[in-house]
């Protein structure tokens, strides 16, 4: 079920306050127009009543698509809530849910995304039937082979499912700070496919590398560099 509430929001440009309805949960099977709004960067967007400003309000959003078996919680990082804190809280609440459920009931698998682009990327990855851990493994290897040019401190790689073809997966480099999209990298799909075969034979290595709930090559690389 979709869920929205009225919030009093202050315009970041002129400071005028207004009451607006914002979504906390979207069920895109029941309301496909909300998926369209999310993809078009219009969900939870506010037009100021007093100036020309149009701005997006980022707040926790539960994205569900029962038809495609997709459940993703987008929890944006804020000054008060760091990435580490979000991941820790999320892990804890998953554990609590699992403890509360009867033993014969399997908890739905919920994914975690920290930014809107990662949420959108993940929706397309799952819908296309791609293996998210293998996709992140590919990104990991692209990063590690190009540490100078694609420094994970400054850039993230996003898989562009729509521009990918039968022969190639198409990745785009995003500047984390400015959010600007840059160079496009093409990766031979056959190489991805042979990694999927490795995964199917022995998923443990991939699961060890990317246990979840936030499956991200960039986060793994940043954690590794923190430990050095
Ligand atoms: Zn304004």
Class per helix and strand makeup: alpha+beta
As a percent range, the share of helical residues equals 25-40%
Tally of DSSP helical segments: 7
Unreliable stretches covering 5 or more consecutive residues: none
Could you give a quick summary of the protein structure above?
This protein is an alpha+beta fold and 228 residues long. It has helices at residues 32-39, 83-100, 116-127, 132-145, 189-201, 204-209, 217-227; strands at 3-10, 17-27, 45-47, 54-56, 61-65, 70-74, 111-113, 155-159, 168-175, 181-188. It has a domain at 116-227.
Any overview of this molecule?
- By secondary structure, this protein is an alpha+beta fold.
- It has a domain at 116-227.
- Helix content is 36%, strand content 26%.
- It has 7 helices and 10 strands.
- The protein has helices at 32-39, 83-100, 116-127, 132-145, 189-201, 204-209, 217-227; strands at residues 3-10, 17-27, 45-47, 54-56, 61-65, 70-74, 111-113, 155-159, 168-175, 181-188.
- The chain has a 5-stranded mixed beta sheet, with helices on one face. A 3-stranded antiparallel beta sheet has the order 8-9-10.
- Helix 4 (132-145) crosses helix 7 (217-227).
- The longest helix is centred in the middle third of the chain and has 18 residues, at 83-100.
- It is globular.
- The structure holds zinc ion.
- Zinc ion is lined by residues 11, 13-14, 16, 48, 50-51, 53.
- The site of zinc ion (ZN) has 8 residues, from loops.
């Amino acid at each position: 079920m979709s869920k929205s509430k009225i919030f009093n929001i202050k315009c970041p440009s002129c400071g005028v306050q207004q009451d607006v309805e914002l979504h906390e949960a979207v069920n895109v099977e029941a309301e496909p127009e909300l998926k369209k709004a999310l993809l078009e960067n219009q969900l939870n967007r506010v037009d100021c009543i007093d100036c020309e400003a149009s701005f997006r309000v980022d707040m926790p959003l539960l994205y569900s698509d029962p038809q495609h078996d997709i459940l993703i919680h987008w929890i944006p990082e804020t000054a008060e809530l760091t990435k580490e804190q979000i991941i820790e809280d999320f892990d804890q609440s998953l554990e609590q849910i699992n403890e509360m459920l009867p033993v014969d009931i399997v908890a739905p698998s919920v994914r975690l995304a920290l930014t809107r682009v990662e949420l959108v990327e993940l929706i397309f990855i799952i819908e296309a039937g791609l293996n998210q851990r293998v996709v992140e493994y590919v990104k990991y290897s692209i990063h590690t082979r190009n540490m100078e040019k694609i420094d994970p401190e400054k850039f993230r790689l996003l898989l562009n499912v729509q521009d990918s073809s039968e022969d190639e997966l198409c990745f785009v480099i995003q500047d984390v700070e400015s959010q600007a999209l840059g160079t496009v990298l093409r990766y031979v799909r056959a190489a991805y496919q042979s990694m999927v075969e490795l995964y199917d034979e022995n998923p443990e290595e991939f699961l060890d590398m990317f246990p979840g709930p936030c499956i991200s090559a960039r986060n793994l690389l940043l954690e590794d560099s923190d430990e050095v």
